[in-house]
Write a structure and sequence with these properties.
single chain, alpha/beta, Rossmann fold, 19% strand, globular
């Protein structure tokens, strides 16, 4: 397979609530086959944890864009506090549609890529604007609560009564997700040592927002109409493979594919031995290639009446007004020269 040269860039943006968010992209040097928009999982981030995904897809000719949700990774906000799940969806929609409206990308296909909780984000982005996206890749998605772990309605009712009193309390008991999600011990420790990944107990409001989102999605799986490829490890104990089966069976779209990987865990693209990761990414690229090879068969709906809710932050300044919030030397991504740091990388 031909490998494309690509460039890696970082920037900061401000969302509609004025919160500074980190964003990054892996862009082929030549015109991309299509655009892929990353939706990372709970507690995760894009620049390091999803770097392998960005590199693999950019090397295959796709422009890949990622954003750390508010409170996640290198973005501002209370760490891993999700006040409203809709805030995550709206932030992703605002940023990703801004990119799609750019002159060099407006005629390119648009694909969502969601891992775990990011699968729920991707599906909700589709539901927010059903005709905008050309397809979705869903890796061990969170779109239904397994009957094995679904809380009793009485428990949910009790927690709901206090969520606005102690929303940020880290009182939700949970097992070590990293141990349960990532099979390869070396990769597991690399992930554990990534300080951008949230590894504390879930906050009360966050846990309830994720629960409600999953339950709402479960009730509306039949409304999913975009083409998708759902991938799941059969040995996954973080999100039950039965969830992906339910999505595949209930979704209304005709173009749907499911693949279950025997013996693989939750972290299909980041926690498996290299041979398994190669297999998963080969399947992902093949699925994308099959839907982007013939440009005539890919319908890209135009962006109508577009007004961006996203502001680019350049050297700590939003829209070129005001003074820098912090010394330029301390900027995580050195936002000089147009707001993005450019790092040349080659996959060859």
């Amino acid at each position: 397979m031909m490998k494309f040269k690509f460039e890696y860039e970082e920037e900061y943006i401000k969302n509609s609530r004025g919160v500074e968010l980190f964003a990054c992209r892996w862009v082929p040097s030549s015109s991309p086959r299509a655009l892929v928009f990353l939706c990372h999982g709970y507690g995760m981030e894009c620049s390091s944890f999803m770097r392998e995904c960005g590199i693999r897809l950019a090397s295959a000719g796709y422009a890949v864009f990622g954003m750390d949700y508010e409170g996640h990774g290198r973005s501002k906000g209370a760490r891993c506090y999700i006040k409203k799940f809709s805030n995550i969806v709206n932030d992703c929609y605002d940023y990703y549609t801004t990119i799609s409206a750019q002159e060099e990308y407006k005629e390119k296909g648009r694909f969502l890529y969601g891992e775990s909780m990011g699968g729920a984000v991707a599906l909700l982005l589709h539901k927010k604007d059903p005709s905008f996206w050309n397809g979705a890749l869903l890796v061990a998605p969170m779109c239904k609560i397994s009957e094995k772990v679904k809380p009793h309605p009485v428990v949910i009712n009790l927690l709901t009564r206090v969520e606005d009193i102690i929303p940020k309390w880290k009182i939700v008991p949970t097992k070590d997700v990293i141990d349960a999600a990532f099979k390869d011990p070396i990769k597991r420790e690399e992930i554990r040592n990534n300080k951008l990944i949230y590894q504390d107990k879930p906050r009360l409001k966050t846990a309830l927002e994720m629960l409600r989102t999953s339950m709402d999605l479960e009730d509306t799986l039949h409304e999913i109409t975009l083409p998708f490829f759902v991938l799941h490890g059969e040995a996954d104990i973080v999100t039950d493979p039965e969830i992906s089966k339910a999505l595949f069976e209930k979704a209304s779209t005709r173009d749907k594919t499911i693949k279950l990987y025997p013996g693989m865990w939750h972290g299909l693209t980041s926690g498996e031995p290299d041979a398994n990761v190669d297999l998963v990414f080969a399947d992902i690229v093949n699925w994308l290639d099959a839907r982007t090879g013939d440009s005539a068969s890919l319908t890209v709906n135009p962006v109508h009446d577009f007004t961006s809710n996203v502001q680019k932050v350049v050297d700590g300044v939003s829209n070129g007004q005001g003074k820098s919030k912090r010394p330029q030397a301390s900027l995580l991504c050195g936002l000089n020269g147009g707001g993005r740091r450019l790092v040349h990388r080659s996959s060859m």
